Amino acid sequence: MMKTIRTPRGRLPAPAGRRAFARRPGGWAALGLLLALWVSSCSPEERGQFLTPEYTNDLVNLYAKSKLPKEAKEVYGHRMVGQSLTIHVRFCCTQEQLQSFLEASPVIPNVLQEDFRPFERPKKHIPFWRPHQLTEIRGLQTRWHRDGDEVGFLLMTGKEAKRQLLVVYMLFVIEHLASR
Questions:
Q1: What is the DSSP letter of 90?
Q2: Are the C-beta atoms of 165 and 93 separated by less than 8 Å?
Q3: Where are the beta strands (DSSP E) in the chain?
Q4: Residue 176's pLDDT band (boundaries 50, 70, 90)?
Q5: Which of 89, 140, 143, 177 is in Cβ range 3.0-4.6 Å of 170 for a Cys bridge?
Q6: CA 177 to CA 33: how far, in whole Å?
Q7: In terms of C-beta density within 10 A (0-12 exposed, 13-18 middle, 19 or more buried), how is residue 72 classed?
Q8: How high is the mean pLDDT of the chain?
C-alpha cells in the first residue's frame, strides 16, 4: 500500500524518505544553496537596532557623560552588537547648543578641527547616516576608558543644503577590555 499525504489539491503520494528528496532534481544541492543564500543575506552590517530618541540620549549620556541638547531636533540612533558595541547617533542643533554639549562632557574635547572628516560614506542599513551630504565640516576623534571598557569616539558636524541647523554625526565604538 502506497503512503499518501493530504494537501489542498487532494491526496498525493508521500515521498519515500531522504533518498527520494536526494533523487529529486536539485535535491540537497538546492537546499544547500537556499541555506547559503539565507545566511549571506543576514550579513553583520544588517544586524542592529534602531533606537528611540530617548534611549539614544540615555546611551550618549552613559558613555559621553553629557546629555544631548534639549532643543536637539531629528535625534536618531542605531546600535549594533558584534565583537564591539557600535552606536551611531545623528541630530540637529545650533552651534551654541553643540558647544554647550561638548563643554558639559568631561571626556569629549570641546575643540573641533576644521575639515576633519571621519565619515565619508552613507551606510545602506542606516538610512539616517548621510555624512557625505555635509559642507563646512568640522570634527574630532578621541578615546577614553569607562568601567573596564574602551570607548572610541568620532564626531563630525557640518551643514546640509537648505538647513539652518548644524547636523551632528557621532559614532561610539565600545570594546570590553577584559575580552582581549
A1: E
A2: yes
A3: 4-7, 10-13, 49-51, 73-81, 85-93, 113-114, 135-146, 149-159, 166-176
A4: confident
A5: 89
A6: 39
A7: buried
A8: 83
The residue among 66, 107, 112, 115 whose CA lies nearest residue 89 is 66
CA dihedral (63, 64, 67, 73) positive or negative = negative
Phi-psi category of residue 149: left, alpha or beta, with phi > 0 → left and psi -120 to 50 → alpha: beta
- The pLDDT assigned to 167 comes to 96
CA distance 155 to 96: 16
What band does 11 get if pLDDT is binned at 50, 70 and 90? confident
Q: How far is CA 114 from CA 33, 137, 156, 157, 158, in A?
A: 50, 6, 10, 10, 10
Name the residue ranges covered by the structural domains of the chain: 4-42, 45-179
* Whole-Å CA distances, 158 to 50, 85, 103, 132: 23, 25, 18, 10
Q: Which amino acid is at 131?
A: P
Q: Are 80 and 47 in contact (CB under 8 A)?
A: yes
Read off the pTM: 0.73
